[in-house]
Design goal:
This protein is mainly beta and 115 residues long. Helix content is 0%, strand content 54%. The strands form two sheets. Strands 2, 4, 5, 6, 9, 10 and 11 form a seven-stranded mixed sheet that branches.
Length: 115
C-alpha cells in the first residue's frame, strides 16, 4: 500500500518562499511518477507540477512557471516543491500524488499567502 505524507505548509507573506515535502512509504519512489496538485476554496483541484519517475521530465502549470520547482530524492523517498515569490492566489491545500498502475494521494498541507 503506497502512502504519501505531505509537510511544509504554513502561513507566509506575499513574495515569500516555502518548500513542501512529500514522503512516500510502501513503495520505492523510483518507480513512481510524482505530482503536486492544489485546491483552493470553491475551485477544482488543479495540477501544479509533475516529475517523471527518473526525474528527467518535469511540467508545470502556467500560473507557477518560473516560481515553483519540483524535485525528487529517490534515496530519501521524497519529492519536493520549492515555491518562490508566492502570491495570495497560491493559497490552497497542496496535495502530493503518485502514479504507477494506480493513483495515490496524500492528505494535503495548507499553504496560506497573505498580501
Amino acid at each position: 500500500q503506497v502512502q504519501l505524507a505531505e509537510s511544509g505548509g504554513g502561513l507566509v507573506q506575499s513574495g515569500g518562499t516555502l518548500r513542501l515535502a512529500c514522503v512516500v512509504s510502501g513503495s520505492p519512489i523510483s518507480i513512481l511518477a510524482m505530482h503536486w496538485y492544489r485546491q483552493s476554496q470553491g475551485k477544482e483541484r488543479e495540477m501544479v507540477a509533475y516529475i517523471s519517475s527518473n526525474g528527467g521530465s518535469t511540467n508545470y502549470a502556467d500560473s507557477v512557471k518560473g516560481r515553483f520547482r519540483i524535485s525528487r530524492d529517490n534515496v530519501k523517498n521524497t519529492v519536493y516543491l520549492l515555491m518562490d515569490n508566492l502570491k495570495p492566489e497560491d493559497t490552497a491545500v497542496y496535495y502530493c500524488k503518485a502514479t504507477y498502475f494506480g493513483t495515490y494521494w496524500g492528505q494535503g498541507t495548507q499553504v496560506t499567502v497573505s498580501s
